[in-house]
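Q: Hi! First time doing this. I have a protein sequence and I read that you can turn it into a structure. Is that right? Here it is:
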Amino acid sequence: MNPDVIVIGAGIVGAACAQALAQAGQRVLVLDAQRGGATGAGMGHLVVMDDNPAELALSQYSVAQWRALAPQMPADCAFSGCGTLWVAADAEEMAAAEDKRQRLQDHGIACHLLDAAALAQAEPALRPGLAGALKVPGDGIVYAPNAARWLLSKYEHLVQVEYALVAEIDGKTVRLADGSQRQAPQILLANGIHATTLCPGLPIRPKKGHLLITDRYPGTVHHQLVELGYVTSAHHSVGPSVAFNLQPRPTGQLLLGSSRQFDTMDTTVEAEMLQAMLQRALTYMPGLADLNAIRSWCGLRAATPDSLPILGAHPDRDGLWLAVGHEGLGGTTALGTAHLLAALMTGGTPPLDPAPYSLQRFAEVVCT
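A: Yes, that's right. Below is the predicted 3D structure, encoded as C-alpha cells:
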C-alpha cells in the first residue's frame, strides 16, 4: 500500500484519526511502537468537561459521537452510559455545581442537581452529610484499548497497522529504528507523551497518575463519581495532588483514581501517592476500606500548559499534522479530534473551530 497518510501512534487518538481518515477515503498506514501509553493505563471516561470554552466544545462534540457509535461497538469495548455525578461535599461546592449546571445547560447538555437526599438514594455507598451533586446522564465510559483496536478494524481495506518504532520524521519520510523508511504526503503525530522525541519543541510534559481496581462488587456504585474539586486538582495544581474519581466497570469492578505528579517518566507505583489517593476516596466512600483491591498501576498523561490538546498542521513543517497533548481526556475527545483532523487534512469543513487547538497559540514554541 502506498499510503496517503502515515499515523504515528495506535492508541485511542491515533486509531480514531486513522478510522476517520479512512472514512474520508484516505489510505492510512499506522505505525505503533507498542510501548504502552495513556490508552492502556487510563480510566476510559467519556465526560463533558467545561474548564474553558474550547474544552467544552471538543468534549461535548466527542461524547455525542461516542454515544452515536455505541450501538455498533462489540461488547468487549465495555461501553456504559452510566452518567457522571459531580459530588459536592459542602454548600460552597453545591454552589459550584449550580454554576456548572447553568453552564452545561446553556450549551444544550442535559443535567440536573441532586440534593443530599437524592444523592444518598442514587449512591447509598457514599458517606452521609454530602451536600448533593450535579448529574450529567449523557456521560459514560469505554474500555479504550479494545475501542482503539475496533476503530482500526473498521476500514481494514484502507488501514494497515505496522508495529515498529519510529526514529525520525524527515519531511514526508518516516525513518524506523531498523533503518527502513516509509513515505506519505501527510504524516500525523498521535503518539501521546512520546511525541516530543520526534518533535522536540512541543510544549508537552508528563503528568503521572495512579489507578487502582477492585475485585467484583456489582451494584456498589451506579454512576461515575467525581468530586467537584477535581477540576481544580486536574488543571491548576503545580505540585502532586489527588482527587476522588470512581467508576463502576461493567465487570462489577470499581476503578479508582486519581493522582497527579509532574515531570517524571517513572511509572512505578509510589506507596505515598497511592495512600493519599485512597485516603481521599475514603472521605467520600468509607466502605471502600472493606473491599479487595486486586491491582494498582500508573500511567502518563501528555499535558500542555493550558490543558488543551494540540490539533492541526505544524506551522513550520510541511505535511506534518499534530494530534497530541490530550492529558487525561484522550478517550473522551478522540472522536472529536479525529473528525477535526480528518476534515482539515482532506479539505473538508471541520465540525469545530480549530483555532483554539492550534500549536500557534504557543508563540514561543520552536520545533525543528
